[in-house]
Amino acid sequence: MSFGRPPSISTGFQVTPPNRGSFPLDHYGECKEFMTQYLECLKSNSSASSECRHLNRDYLNCRMQNGLMEKDEWKNLGLANLKSDKSEMNNR
Question: How many structural domains are present in the chain?
């Protein structure tokens, strides 16, 4: 009787990275304020992310500006239809 992995996993299984790569941890808390605001918004809106999309955009913008994720266009992140209150698009 064997208690190891099923044979199908040990042969022919290859690990592949995620399509958009990994998200490095924010060790220095550079975007913690944006993350906290976003999570508080989700909490107060019963996890309705549509109410907090503007905060999601701010959080992702912070991550892109601080090198914690690759810069990408808002349309690729599903946030193209939001108006920007800041001039972060000039920095791209």
Answer: 1
